[in-house]
Amino acid sequence: MKVVALVSGGKDSCFAMMRCIDYGHQIVALANLIPLDDSVDELDSYMYQTAGHQIIISYAECMGLPLFRRRIYGSTREHSVNYRMTPGDEVEDMYALLHEVKRQIPSVNAVSSGAIASDYQRMRVESVCSRLGLVSLAFLWKQDQITLLEEMIRRDIVAVTVKVAAIGLNPSEHLGRELKDLKLHLLKLNEKYGIHVCGEGGEYETLTLDCPLFHKARIFIDKYKGILDNPNSTIASVGVLHPLSFHLEQKDASYSTSHLPAVFEVEGNPTFTPSSSKPLDSEFDPDKGEQARNFRISSTGKNLLSIGCWIQNSSKTSNGLQEDLAAVLRQIELRLGAEGFGWVNVLYIHLYISDMKQFALANEVYVKYITSAECHFGVPSRSTIELPLVKCGLGGGYVEVLVAREPEKKKVLHVQSISCWAPSCIGPYSQATQYKGVLYMAGQLGFDPPTMNLRVGGPTAELEQALQNSEAVAKCFNTSIFTSTFLFVIYCSARLTSSEKIQVQEKLKSSFDSSDSPAFLYVLASDLPKGASVEVKPVIYAPGVEEETEELDVGKLRTPLENIFGKLQIDKTCYQLCNIKDKLLSCIVSITNTEASKICSQQDDSAFDFQCGSKKHMTIIATFCASIVAKTLCENGFSWNDLVILRFYYPTCLLLSADLMDCVFSEAFLDLARDDESIKFGKEPLFNLVPVIGSGQSAHMDDLITCELLASKL
Description:
By secondary structure, the protein is of the alpha/beta class.
């Protein structure tokens, strides 16, 4: 990509440029923001470093690149971490600056910044990039600071301190010192006081005088004066270096100073009109033919609920993925509104589409509904897979949303920048969402984060990378997928061979402690995004968020089991259950062909054929599944209102229509309610039937029916 680099003069922004080149990008321009008054060294800003700004104009000559500069007219007006366009805010000066860069150099498609740990800075850069259609590159993001410091020095970045403001850093002793000379001192301060060795806590700021990117010249400061902000402080004095004179020393004898790169002073404020999420283009109008569609809505749970929507189409045709998906999202939106909710309440979205080749088109529809403006507490996390929807008579799009009644309590991680940390989420979907003690992680592919390419080496290599990516995300919430995951879903591409599936399973099991491993669910999908072989989706117990403390009366939830369903038996190897402190319950039940035969033989003498299951046999299986759900909830002290997710995966090889499956399972749960008056179900199903190529608790994925259950009292 062609990159404009945001440069403050500090070591971080310069090293970020070097990382861009490492990954094959081209720096084509520099951009810098400076105070209104040249005599002012340091602004009171969490966003911009301005100390040493008087020298930045020389970067154009040192690198042989055009430099765009703008004075900072705004101030901090939007104080929240999640930035929204705010007239008069200092971020709008960055927007104006980069807008002009893009106008003059239309080929620019990315922006480099030196953000390491500040969400405040990163998210503002991402906001501006999103508005301008640019990609944010932040290759230092979340990297170990000691490693970064050592690498900067090793790779010949010559930087001096232009501000010190931390205990152990004395202006008279440490101002104007080279970074390499301060390294050992900074490491000692880190060990003694916990300071950030790269200055991410504001401990110090630097000015780069030379680096490998300065091909033409390097900078020498001839004279400066130190300015003390609070010289009488008993904790730490703040000192700023004010350059009085400097000069350049040419590196390239053939370089002519008569043709210096241009320096552009950017004035004025470009107009910006936020794009509207609606109305949709007529070519995929959600209302087109809506009355003719047979929408099905599912609703599960009370305090934390799941809503699903799909199109029941027995003719097994589709109006096209875009039109079907737009119609389904519109129905979800209407249902949310009817419940007093909006997209802001949505924590997670499962997006099932009929054709992964149309993934980009599906996203075009998706972003018309789910936007950062609509979701001001953070956009939902998401997983996307291709399923044989049309073949089963379910239209081109199928959506499930997990909805919270208190969206202000969710914590969302949405990193849009490409970095070395974990794959970026460029768009309105986040890496993970934490809500009331549970971390719902987006589906993770085996992307190499800095290149956003699938890791080479086959399915197990992709899985290993996906696990690394998931762990990087989990660490941001002070947890680990390897110790705290209670439900682990693995989507596998139908392209995998039998041996590759087994290798994936072995690799996954070896990554977890067998004594404390989560419940595993394997799903064989028609295809995955970007042609990936595997996609992983951990659900993690992360009690960092404040939980409810009121007493729970579980006694009233218990009912004599024989009054509900009599005696039920299933092989223990087909049943994975995790009960966390009687607050969270997850369960995977595998109804294999063998188990199905046993269940059916108790009520019917005819042999059960997996490949052509009859309605009669499926009715028996559905009744058994409904009973197992009731038994699981009851025996663990959970009510039907605690149920959050209930899915039944079934393989397309059953040759049973979606209409028939819907009818059979709906009747099974209605029968359950008729047998026990304490069970109350609404008019809509509380489950989702998901057609797949295969599913199960092992990589064989040969279940007849797989049940996935999640209940919560948090």
